[in-house]
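User: Show me sequence and structure for the first protein, then do the same for the second.

Assistant: Starting with the first protein.
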Amino acid sequence: MNKVRILLTGGSFNQMTQMAQIAEALPAEHFETWFTRAYVDGPGNWCSRRGLLEWTVLGDRLSERGLAFLRDRGARIDDGGRANRPEAERRGTA
């Protein structure tokens, strides 16, 4: 039986700890949990890469603490949901 993949998204440390609690509550035999920091595509991504959103949960400063918490717990990280997107979407054909 294939497990359902779930991408849990958070930005701040508090949000990441909440996502970790959700992941712990899901039965591991049915769900494969992955985590990502909050992210945005399109024009928002352009702003984020230039540091214009640093004061929000989309910025590195706020999200890095939460990601460090997850890494210390051995959580699977899929930054921006890139690794688990359907193949068609990765090729830009979705």
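Switching to the second protein now.
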Amino acid sequence: MSNPFDAKSEKGLAETNQRHRVTMSVLYELPLFRAQKGLVGHVLGGWQANGVFTFETGLPMYPLQPTEPIADGCPRCNPRPDRLANGSLPSDQRSLQRWFDTSAFKIASGHYGTSGRNILTAPGLTSLDFSLFKNIRVTEDKRFQFR
């Protein structure tokens, strides 16, 4: 809570509000040595590749200022700055070092800041988890997996 006397300033998106998340997985059996018989086929064949792709948008966030604007002793208050403009940057101007427009905010001094809760969106995530593994048959119904 930024301003304990203004509950309306706390209205905003939840911290867990993630608008989009797409997860895709793929499993591919490598054709190498699959037709080989004997020990060579048993050892070198049967490999599989697996990939899990995740694309997700960022979570809501808000700017904080380093000092409390009013020394009111509110232990759970998150001091927010004054908001002068929107604060969002066009996507072609964003970087990890400058994700939002810092000039759209100024330190609130002597009063509670005017920035709302979760007014900005943090960077999203794109990831690939890759694995290569081999199933080795030990008995008819038992397998050992090497990753």
